[in-house]
Design a protein that fits this description.
The protein has about 270 residues and is mostly helical. The chain has one domain: MetI-like fold. It is built from 11 helices and no strands. The longest helix has about 35 residues. The radius of gyration is 22 Å and the shape is elongated. The chain starts with 8 loop residues before the first helix and ends in a 5-residue tail after the last helix.
């Protein structure tokens, strides 16, 4: 059981903010004072008792849009990260264990994908495919899995030559046992750290795609799209676009603080095997 007093202040702040964002995303329909696309006032009204964060470029309540945007942003980022880690880690471990032509072919394919800037590849693919959440999650997850593959393979290559892995092979254990029972538990520390970074990257990648018009499509809301919708107000001194931008930054920082703490904790608790 965790002792809260022994958790660093930075980690506590990260845990609190991350839990807050997750709670808002989960309970969005009950927390939002207005419906997602409901026009309730004039364009870019200032903050008031009626509209806590003011209104956006169409007169919609900005607080409600932020709440629903949190749900969309976090959901897509979580699913894309889960896909990238599941695909990248399994293929990376398999390449390290099987080696030979399988490793060579897969690694050269990953090198080819990584040679093309991720944003450009994402824009090209999304411009020709239907714009929906499933397509967005698949594109983000597959493109990001190349980074996870490289890390997983590098870690697994080192673990694969350890004595306990060799002992498992001599016992006649199959590849599945070696990957999931021998390599995976001993590769958790770097993967946990990378998980936080990949989630942050997914949030930023989604926000960039939405800002460029190829991410979440209206009337759905996400924070990157909200920055795009309200960016013209900055010229007139209206900060409606800065609120979702600040939320993106806060989410990235909070998740990074939690990931750093989890990495330090798993590293200190991990016992050697041999």
């Amino acid at each position: 059981m965790l002792d809260i007093k022994r958790i660093p202040i930075a980690a506590l702040i990260g845990l609190f903010l991350t839990a807050l964002f997750l709670s808002v995303a989960i309970f969005a329909p009950w927390l939002a004072p207005y419906r997602l696309g409901q026009i309730v006032g004039n364009v870019w009204e200032p903050s008031s008792s009626k509209f806590w964060l003011g209104t956006d470029n169409l007169g919609r309540d900005l607080l409600s849009r932020m709440i629903f945007g949190a749900r969309t942003t976090i959901l897509i980022a979580v699913l894309a990260t889960a896909l990238s880690f599941s695909l990248g880690a399994i293929l990376g471990f398999a390449a390290a264990v099987f080696g030979g032509w399988f490793d060579t072919t897969l690694s050269r394919l990953v090198d080819l994908l990584m040679s093309i800037p991720t944003l450009i590849m994402g824009l090209v693919v999304l411009s020709v495919l239907p714009s929906n959440l499933v397509t967005l999650i698949l594109v983000m997850g597959i493109l990001d899995s190349t980074r996870v593959y490289r890390l997983s393979r590098a870690v697994a290559v080192d673990i694969n030559v350890m004595d306990y892995v060799e002992a498992a092979k001599l016992r006649g254990e199959g590849s599945g046992w070696i990957i999931f029972r021998e390599i995976l538990p001993n590769a958790l520390s770097p993967l946990v750290s990378e998980l936080g970074l990949r989630f942050i990257y997914a949030v930023l990648f989604l926000s960039t795609l939405s800002f460029l018009g190829l991410g979440v499509q209206p009337p759905d809301a996400d924070w990157g799209g909200m920055v795009k919708e309200n960016k013209d107000g900055i010229v007139f001194g209206i900060g409606a676009a800065l609120i979702p931008a600040a939320a993106i930054a806060m989410l990235a920082i909070s998740v990074n603080l939690v990931a750093d703490w989890v990495l330090n904790r798993t590293t200190s608790l991990k016992g050697g095997r041999g």
